[in-house]
Amino acid sequence: MILRLAATMNLPLRQQNALMLAAGYAPVWRERDLSMPDLAVVNSALDYMLAQHEPYPAFVVDRCWNLLRANRGAANLTEFLIGPAPAHAPSDPVNLAVALVSGDGLRPFIVNWPEVALYFVRGVQADARADGTPETADLLARLLAFPDVAALSETMPPEEEAQSPVLPIHFCYKGISLQLFTTIATLGIPRDVTVQDVRIEFFFPMDEPTAQALRGWAEQTRLTA
Questions:
Q1: 83 and 62 co-located in one domain
Q2: One domain, residues 61 and 113
């Protein structure tokens, strides 16, 4: 009965497990590390999607926007903006939402930062309402704690948010302007909490100069490999 009600309400698998626990039953849906052998076919699909999107940037993130993997196009973009990745991986995972919102991350390079930050904050707010987990609530609190973020929805009238059919992310650095928009894909018909939480974010150029820059970086990488 619990599972039928959850399915009728279209609740995420994570929430269905929470309902089962609240009713005194064991969770139904498994949650595993994405590197587990029985998820190899999922990993192959993710790697294929990232490779096929070259030379444009693509990222794989979890439900809290923690970076799981990225393609070479994504590495080229971030290296252009903030320099090469550190030799030793940080202990904490890179968080894409935090990187876009934080002044220590990509904020200085985003021309339309208020629009982009507001989009990500509203997305995390929706996730926090949907899953009710401490991790998502902590991420929301972390984003709202950055300067100027909490006041964004008050300072930006709704009519200013609807001037384009898609929200561009306009980067500018060293006189080079890059305008991209994103699409987010998820894995269909999930039967695992981990699989349902995976999101693939694809960046597409909005103009030819941006496309040329991305293709040029890819060619430089190929020649120096």
A1: yes
A2: yes
Give yes or no: residues 20 and 127 share one domain: no
Same domain, 20 and 87: no
| Residue type, position 189, single letter | I
User: Quick one: how far is CA 186 from the chain centroid?
Assistant: 11
Side-chain-facing half-sphere of 52: CA atoms under 13 Å: 7
- Nearest Cα residue to 177 out of 119, 110, 106: 110
Strand runs labelled E in the chain: 58-61, 67-70, 169-173, 176-186, 199-205
Sheet containing 67-70: give its strands across.
67-70, 58-61, 199-205, 176-186, 169-173
What digits encode the pLDDT tens for the residues 158-205? 555 555 677 899 999 999 999 999 999 999 888 888 899 999 999 999
